[in-house]
Structures are given as C-alpha cells and as structure tokens.
Design goal:
The protein is mostly helical. 73% of the residues lie in helices and 0% in strands. Helix 1 packs across helix 3, helix 5 packs antiparallel against helix 6 and helix 6 runs antiparallel to helix 11.
Length: 267
C-alpha cells in the first residue's frame, strides 16, 4: 500500500466514523470533489462500512455524478461483489453474540475490516482489468430514441409507465409494463420492460424481453440488437456482445455507427 492510499484510508475511516470536526469534515468533502482517486477509495470504503457496521444509508452532501463512479457502482452490483458482501456479512454475524463486549468486538471488527478491505481491493483490481466492458455499458446507457407512449389510444397506464421510467423509478415502471404485457406484448412495451429489467440488474429478464423484441416484425425490432449487446456488456460477456454487435453491423440495424466503434474497442 503506498503512502497516498494509507493517508486516504485514515481520512476516510475518520469521516465514516464521524471522528472529524465540522471544519475537517467540510475540508474532506471538498477534497472528494477535487480528487477522483480519493473519491473512488471513499466509495469502496463506504460500501464496505455499510456492510460491516450495518449502516445501509450513509448520506453524503456532494454531487459525485461521474462516469467512473457510475462504472464502479455498476461493478459493485455484480455477482462477484455480491458474494463478497455475503462473506463479510456472514463473518459479521458470527460475532453478533459479542456485541455487549465493546472492547473485544472492536478488536475483532477492525481486523475483519482490514481483511475485508484487502478482499475488496483484490476485486477492484479485477474490476480495473474488466472495466472496459463496464465503462462501455455506462457510456452508452443514456437511453434515447425511446418510443413515446403519451398518445397511444388514451391508455393512461402506458403514459404513466413511461413517466416513471424517465424519472428513474424503474421498479414501479416495470410493474406497470409487466401488467400491460399480460394483455398484449407490444414492441414498445417490450422495450421498456427490457430496459427496466436492465436497470434493475435482472439481466436474464432483460435478455428475454429483447429477444422477444428482436423476433417481432415491428420497426423497433432492430433496436433489440443494440440493447442485447449492452446487456451482454453489463454481464461482462465480451464474446456474446461481439457476436450480437456483428449481427447488428451486418444487418445495418439501429446504432450502426456506435456498434462499429464498440467492435473496434472489443477486438
């Protein structure tokens, strides 16, 4: 561990444990907005701290809407990191019976944090080696050219589902479109169902809906190739993403130019 990382760890630990004075806290938060490396370290420790200390709602007071943080957040939702979270939680649960022994618990939890931190950093280095697909997904997952549902036969449910999706309330939007799909699987509904599932990390369902879309005769069916490729990128399935992108390019489908650029990056 280099000097900068050690310094970061001390600052982050003090911040998360509320050990900084108001002036120190304000200075630290300012540093986070100016130092991407410190911000990335903080996000890792914040996730770990929430798991080990049981604090699921740590709120910070600055805007960190950056593409690299979005990529890291996406990776933290992956199966690999979920397995690590479960391992940490299991280790924590093994010591729950000693909560009343504050000194003993502190001596146990701190080594656990160190060991878990090492495991997280191993995953982060793995993330860095895989991040190309994650970054590709994040870069291209700003949804555009979506079908407008506000004037489809006066169906208020369609418009409501679209509005919820635009507001990033994907769970609620998904519920509405799921109900609508029971009556008729319109191509536009399949698009929103697939994208909601994708945003909710229900990737198998997303693939299912996009495959259904691809097999329709609707004009929007060509969009399915692009959405399938993005889903495979989020899964880190480079070979499958490459294959579907090649189909997209050869068929001159939706997002042809972007697909060619992605193929160049994947190969």
């Amino acid at each position: 561990m280099d000097i900068n990382q050690e310094k970061y760890h001390k600052q982050i630990s003090a911040y998360l444990r509320d050990e900084l004075s108001p002036e120190e806290k304000k200075l630290f938060e300012k540093s986070l907005t100016q130092n991407p490396e410190l911000l990335q370290e903080f996000k890792i420790h914040q996730e770990l701290f929430a798991q080990v200390e049981g604090s699921e709602d740590i709120v910070v007071s600055w805007d960190y809407d950056k593409e690299d943080v979005r990529a890291l957040t996406t990776y933290f939702r992956s199966e690999e990191v979920e397995k690590l979270k479960k391992t940490i939680q299991k280790a924590k649960n093994n010591y729950q019976g000693y909560k009343k022994q504050r000194v003993w618990r502190k001596n146990i939890i701190l080594p656990l944090l160190v060991a878990a931190s090492i495991a997280v950093f191993v995953l982060v280095y793995t993330f860095n080696s895989k991040s190309s697909t994650t970054e590709m997904y994040v870069k291209h997952s700003e949804w555009e050219d979506l079908p407008s549902l506000t004037s489809r036969g006066g169906d208020n449910k369609l418009a409501e589902g679209e509005r919820l999706f635009v507001d990033k309330k994907y769970k609620e939007s998904y519920a509405i479109f799921t109900a609508l799909s029971q009556k008729e699987q319109q191509p536009s509904v399949l698009i929103y169902l697939g994208l909601c599932a994708l945003e909710l990390d229900q990737l198998d369902k997303a693939l299912h809906y996009f495959e259904l879309l691809k097999n329709t005769e609707a004009i929007d069916s060509s969009k399915a190739y692009w959405y399938l490729a993005l889903t495979y990128l989020k899964q880190n399935e480079k070979e499958k993403a490459t294959n579907i992108l090649q189909e997209l390019v050869s068929g001159n489908h939706y997002k042809n130019t972007e697909a060619r650029e992605l193929l160049d990056q994947l190969q």
